[in-house]
TrEMBL record:
<feature type="domain" description="F-box">
    <location>
        <begin position="6"/>
        <end position="52"/>
    </location>
</feature>
<dbReference type="InterPro" id="IPR032675">
    <property type="entry name" value="LRR_dom_sf"/>
</dbReference>
<dbReference type="InterPro" id="IPR001810">
    <property type="entry name" value="F-box_dom"/>
</dbReference>
<dbReference type="GO" id="GO:0005813">
    <property type="term" value="C:centrosome"/>
</dbReference>
<dbReference type="InterPro" id="IPR036047">
    <property type="entry name" value="F-box-like_dom_sf"/>
</dbReference>
<protein>
    <recommendedName>
        <fullName>F-box/LRR-repeat protein 7</fullName>
    </recommendedName>
</protein>
<comment type="pathway">
    <text>Protein modification; protein ubiquitination.</text>
</comment>
<dbReference type="GO" id="GO:0031146">
    <property type="term" value="P:SCF-dependent proteasomal ubiquitin-dependent protein catabolic process"/>
</dbReference>
<dbReference type="InterPro" id="IPR057207">
    <property type="entry name" value="FBXL15_LRR"/>
</dbReference>
<keyword id="KW-0206">Cytoskeleton</keyword>
<keyword id="KW-0677">Repeat</keyword>
<dbReference type="InterPro" id="IPR006553">
    <property type="entry name" value="Leu-rich_rpt_Cys-con_subtyp"/>
</dbReference>
<keyword id="KW-0963">Cytoplasm</keyword>
<comment type="similarity">
    <text>Belongs to the FBXL7 family.</text>
</comment>
<keyword id="KW-0833">Ubl conjugation pathway</keyword>
<dbReference type="Pfam" id="PF12937">
    <property type="entry name" value="F-box-like"/>
</dbReference>
<dbReference type="Pfam" id="PF25372">
    <property type="entry name" value="DUF7885"/>
</dbReference>
């Protein structure tokens, strides 16, 4: 007599099976729908379709019914294309046409990611703006052919846009409402809360002024390697975006202590600040930041060689909530490490890379007081095996980066 074998999956509840399917890419979930009747129902659970990632070419042409289901707008709240080989403009036109066939617009699309799509142009962005009015999240990292024109049109049409990442889009010099705004431009502002313009080398102070003036609700602003930004641009940030929580002007070599005085006006709202490799910033600017931004959680002054124990004392005493600190290649000594360890016991990440005056003594202070330390970078420091072992002894979960072959 033939005995039926029970699949282990039959013993799991529907909730557990849906949870397991949630870890699979879109194409795999579609394949799971063909296993049996129960899996078909579970595979089309709405909770599995909040994000759509196309890892390979989709073949919705199994049958007429599958073609209809594959282009159901509920499956396309997120569109992701991350390949230089894809003709992005053509793909956008085809996808949005299919999704909008019933409603006239892709109202379910809230997130679009086109990273490294060098063939994406302003025409594609304009099409997204017209057909995806509910867009909230846009990433176009490395899309070098996109210009101000496409961005202007998109932000004008997508009034609910909150997250914009244009990293590496070197032709973008400004962001504001375009000429097709449905109402007078002076009565409208953008609702952007996150803006990343890293490596937008053409951005200048005047363009930054227009951006922050039109985006007063910005919370996160990253301008890494925007080399034309000066203290004037930083002043505009502190004047128009009073709610800023995270700011990065790393490698903006024209920013000085005067810019730090302007950023200090953000007060306790500022939680994250990176001024790495801004070598014109000294103790005076960092002390001003520490004095006013006392809720700071993250501070990166790597490469600011004029930063010393003097400002670290102010940081330690004023910012007890500090969780991450990078003082690599700064003029900080063991005394500065002692102050940090005594006043910031909840420190999780610390980098003292290339700090020539930090020895075992400074590292031991950190180990004794900051028992929850998770990452420590002591590359190119005068730390011996004794200091290394002390950290290992007191900070059980700490990952130590070093260049001393004797530590292995």
């Amino acid at each position: 007599k033939r005995v039926g074998r029970t699949s282990p999956f039959d013993k799991l509840s529907d909730e557990l099976v849906v949870r397991i399917l949630s870890f699979l890419p879109t194409n795999s979930v579609c394949q799971c729908a063909r296993v049996c009747g129960r899996w078909y129902v579970l595979a089309w659970d709405p909770r599995l379709w909040s994000t759509i990632t196309l890892t390979s070419q989709v073949h919705p042409s199994v049958c007429g019914r599958w073609y209809v289901l594959a282009w159901d707008p509920r499956l396309w709240s997120t569109i992701t294309l991350t390949s230089e080989a894809i003709h992005a403009d053509r793909a956008i036109k085809q996808i949005t046409r299919l999704l909008a066939r019933d409603s006239g617009g892709c109202v379910h699309v809230e997130k679009v990611i086109f990273n490294s799509c060098s063939r994406l142009s302003d025409r594609g962005l304009q099409l997204i703006g017209r057909r995806c009015p509910e867009l909230r999240h846009l990433e176009i990292k490395g899309c070098v052919n996109v210009t101000n024109t496409g961005i202007f049109e998109l932000v004008t049409q997508c009034v609910n846009l909150e997250h914009l990442d244009v990293t590496g889009c070197q032709q973008i010099t400004c962001i504001h409402l375009g000429s097709v705004a449905p109402e007078p431009l002076h009565t409208r502002q953008l609702y952007l809360q996150y803006l990343d313009m890293t490596d937008c080398f053409s951005l200048e102070d005047q363009g930054l002024k227009v951006i922050v003036k039109n985006c007063p609700q910005l919370l996160h602003l990253y301008l890494r390697r925007c080399i034309n930004i000066t203290d004037t641009g930083v002043k505009h940030m502190g004047s128009y975006c009073l709610m800023l929580r995270e700011v990065s002007v790393s490698d903006c070599v024209q920013v000085t202590d005067f810019g730090m005085y302007e950023l200090a006006k953000l007060g306790p709202n500022l939680r994250y600040l990176s001024v790495a490799k801004c070598d014109q910033i000294s103790d005076a600017g960092i002390k001003q930041i520490a004095r006013h931004c006392y809720k700071l959680r993250y501070l990166n002054v790597r490469g600011c060689e004029a930063v010393s124990d003097d400002s670290m004392e102010m940081v330690a005493r004023s910012c007890p909530r500090l969780r991450a600190l990078d003082i690599g290649k700064c003029d900080v000594t063991d005394n500065g490490m002692k102050l940090i360890s005594e006043h910031c016991p909840n420190l999780k990440k610390l980098s003292v890379k290339s700090c020539d005056m930090i020895t075992d003594r400074g590292v031991q202070y950190i180990a004794y007081y900051c028992r929850g330390l998770q990452q420590l970078n002591i590359q190119d420091c005068q730390v011996t095996i004794e200091g290394y072992r002390t950290v290992k002894k007191y900070c059980k979960r700490c990952i130590i980066e070093h260049t001393n072959p004797g530590f292995f």
